[in-house]
Structures are given as C-alpha cells and as structure tokens.
Write a structure and sequence with these properties.
alpha/beta; FAD/NAD(P)-binding domain; 9-stranded mixed β-sheet; 20 strands; binds flavin-adenine dinucleotide
C-alpha cells in the first residue's frame, strides 16, 4: 500500500501521454514534476507531428490477417505506405514476426478489440474538457474525421473493420455523392465513399495543444525540469528518486511516458519490452488554398490530411528503422503524390509550394498495445508508453489508468492486457 508515501510524482516525458498523465495526477492531489529535455510537444515528440486525429474508432490494429501477403507489394511499390530500412533489419528480427503473428487471424484481432476500445472511450470529451480548462478550445477542429475511398470495391475491402466498429457501438456514418461533396467539397470527385467516425475530433495543431496542456500544468503548480531522465534510485524496492542528467529528482512515484525513449528506462526498472520506432513523416504545405474542415484519411495511401494554421498537413508512412537514423525525405514526398490525387485543383502548390517536412517516432510494441502497468523492479514506477499509431486518441484513458495504479485505487480499466510482463509469454 502506498498510503504512507508522500504524494509526489515525477512524470518522465512531455509528449501527449506524459501531459495528460501529469494533469490527471494533479487532479488527484499529487505534486507533479515533469521531466522533459525539450519543449513539451515540441518537434522531437511524436505528439507534435501526427495526423491530428482524436478518434474513438481507432480499434482496428495495423497488423491484420493477410498483412504478410500485402507487405511485399508495399515494399516494392515506390509510393507504398510501408518500408523497412534493411540495414536496421537485425534489430527488427524479433519484433517483426511477433507483429505479423499478432494479426494472424480475425479471432486473435477481435480478442484485443475491447482492450483497445477501453483506452479510446471518452477521448473526445477529455480533449474538449482539457482544452476548455486551458482556454484553448480553438485548437480543436470543428468537424471530426472521415475515411475516403475511391470506389465501392475499396470500401468493401474495409467492410470488416466497419462492422467491428458498429459491434463496439461506435457511431459511424457513410456518405456518397452530393452528401460527400457537402462534407468535403475540396475532395476530388474521384472519391466515391466517405466513412465518418462520429466520436472524433481533429486537432488544429497537436504541438500547440501539448503546449497549452503544459501551460495549464504550470498554472496549477506543476514544475517542468528541462533535463533527460537516465534511471532510478531504488532502495529496498522503493523509489527514492529519478536520476537525471542534472542530478536526482526525489519523488515517491514515477511514470515512464518518454515515447520511444521509454525502452531504456523500462529496462532499468526491470522490464525488457520489445519497443521499436515505426517512423512516420509529415509535410505541411504552407499557403495551400485547400483547407478541408473535416480531417480525411485516405484509405489507399494510408495518410491523414488535416488543416492546420501552418498549412495543409499530410501525415503518414511507416518506416522501420532506428529512431536516430537520418530521415529519408523521399518518404515524405510520397505523401504529396496522394495529396495531388485528392486535390487536383491545388496540384501546382502541392508539388512546388513551400513545404515543411517532419519525421518522428511512433513508439511501437509488436502486439500494437501500449505498455501500462507497474514496473517489475519497483511498484512505485508505472509505465505508460508504446501507443504507436493511436497515442493521441489513447492518452486520456491511459492517464486515468496510470493515476489509478499510482494511487493503488481500483482501476476503472483492467490493466492486465497492457502489462509490461506480457512479452515474457509467447503471444
Ligand atoms: C506520422 C504520424 C501520424 C500519427 N497520427 C496519429 C493520429 O492521427 N491519431 C493518434 O491518436 N495518434 C497518431 N500518431 C501516434 C501518436 O502521435 C503517438 O502515439 C503519440 O504522440 C505518442 O505520445 P508519447 O507521449 O508517448 O510520445 P512523444 O510524443 O514522442 O513524447 C515523448 C517525450 O519524451 C521525451 N523523452 C524521451 N526520452 C526522455 C528521457 N530519457 N527523459 C525525459 N524525457 C524524455 C521526448 O523528448 C518527448 O518529448 C501518429 C504518429 C505519427 C508519427
């Protein structure tokens, strides 16, 4: 029991997971210090450059039955959404087979759908509530998110996913013809079907949203320590401090929410987690005349398209490579190829306009579920990382679960499926 322990906690990492967690712990009466070497939600963070979607319908994992058949085609397609940098293959060797196995059958996929849904429920309301507290409601897009399909056959190929969403009670609506044009007037008429997820919002500026949460955290008495965590001081099984590059930060509890940087910290607290970088890219086309109000996901190229104050953002791509390997900006240019198809009227600006390109690391486990749970080497340390493609959407529920674990309360969500110890077993 932690009743005698001081209510002090250090949250490591100022991305969206760390920020929602820090605020939740403040709500529960903790004195919280956030350890982050850069700007919270700055360019170093996946939370800066993502597709902007807060999507309660993100229950479908990336690894699905038949993936092993499509991946070779993707790898050969110069405009494909997926690439492996072969030089980095050795470090992916144990991860990749487990990733493919996680989606080996629909029965296996369906087993985890409620586990994913539990982390998505209530996300939109939580984003709205925190934006309201931060005085930043303008950072939420007016409309939600919609998948765009070129034709009925492409839509039919995704029918299983939509049926599973319906089974989970996730409200969706489907639009064709005039209805689709009304929702997304900028979208080329080559697109025949729009599938909208109703419990969703897009963020106008995810980095700005993180900065707003950091501001709220500071105003409520939180402290941000601009340094890197390097490990823990643990004595007799109890946490005494988080070690950082600038000395020890005494605390009774710690949360590891350092995105791709979490693997090394987890090891130091007794957990070897297979965490790799699924690197993604974005391009912002400044001064783009096309500014859809609804955020779009192109089924074909697997990219998200969103209006941001800086311009039209295209975000996507999966590149399996070391997190610190140099970016390959050709991967970002592929996104332009799809944008021209979606918005042919703006082709010239999309191709030749002023571009801002970004690359970031999705922190990914092979089973596509995050790691949330007490560390094996010290129950005062709680892990909260590995959210891969859906960390924006899963952050609020992650924060609540982490706070339940830190306070030794009865968790509202069963933490077992997210346990850091699950990788010791064969999936
Ligand atoms: C192209 C792309 C598109 C995406 N689209 C979406 C989307 O539309 N919807 C969605 O839900 N998700 C999306 N995601 C995923 C989502 O962005 C991530 O899952 C999420 O941002 C992860 O948040 P995080 O806080 O765990 O990590 P990060 O945002 O990476 O933050 C981790 C922070 O920890 C800090 N840190 C690292 N090591 C240390 C250390 N040792 N000490 C202290 N601090 C440390 C880093 O500086 C960083 O600020 C997308 C990702 C990408 C790349």
């Amino acid at each position: 029991m932690n009743v005698q322990r001081p209510r002090t906690v250090a949250v490591i990492g100022g991305g969206i997971v760390g920020l929602f967690t820090a605020l939740e712990l403040q709500d529960r009466g903790f004195a919280v210090q956030l350890i982050e070497p850069d700007q919270p939600g700055g360019r170093q963070a996946a939370s800066y450059g993502n597709g902007t979607w807060v999507n309660e319908g993100a229950i479908i994992p990336i690894s699905l039955p038949g993936l092993w058949k499509t991946v070779p085609g993707f790898l050969l397609d110069p405009n494909g959404p997926f690439i492996i940098r072969w030089r980095h293959l050795p470090r992916l060797l144990s991860w990749l087979p487990r990733f493919v196995l996680a989606g080996r059958s629909w029965a296996r996929v369906q087993r985890d759908i409620p586990v994913r849904a539990a982390l998505l429920r209530g996300a939109v309301a939580a984003y709205e509530a925190r934006a309201d507290q931060a005085g930043s409601s303008d950072l939420l897009g007016a409309r939600g998110v919609m998948y765009a399909y070129r034709d009925e056959a492409e839509f039919a190929a995704d029918e299983k996913a939509w049926a599973l969403r319906r089974e989970q009670g996730i409200a969706c609506s489907f639009h064709r013809g005039e209805e689709l044009r009304e929702l997304a007037p900028e979208l080329s008429s080559d697109y025949a079907v729009g599938a909208r997820i109703l419990p969703s919002r897009s963020l106008r500026d995810p980095g700005g949203y993180c900065a707003a949460l950091a501001g709220l955290f500071l105003r409520r008495g939180g402290r941000i320590l601009k340094t890197r965590a390097t490990g823990f001081d643990i004595a007799g099984g109890r946490l005494r401090a988080v070690r950082t590059k600038q000395g020890d930060v005494p605390c009774a509890h710690a949360v590891v929410a350092a995105g791709i940087g979490s693997g090394a910290l987890a090891r130091q607290s007794g957990d070897r987690v297979p965490l790799i970088a699924e690197r993604g890219y974005h391009v912002v086309i400044r001064d783009c005349p096309v500014r859809p109000e609804i955020s779009l996901m192109l089924a074909e190229g697997k990219l998200a398209v969103a209006s941001t104050p800086a311009g039209l953002r295209l975000a996507g791509q999966v590149e399996l490579a070391a997190p610190d390997a140099p970016a390959n900006w050709d991967r970002a240019r592929i996104l332009l190829h799809f944008a021209k198809r979606m918005f042919p009227q703006a082709s010239a600006v999309i191709e030749n306009g002023d571009h801002d390109m970004w690359m970031g690391n999705r922190p990914s486990t092979p089973d596509g579920l995050p790691v949330i749970g007490k560390a094996s080497g010290c129950a005062d340390i709680v892990h909260a990382f590995g959210h891969a493609h859906f960390g924006m959407s899963m952050s609020p529920a992650t924060a609540r679960l982490v706070a339940d674990l830190v306070t030794d309360g009865q968790p509202a969500i069963d933490p077992a499926p997210y346990s850091p110890r699950r990788f010791r077993l064969v999936a």
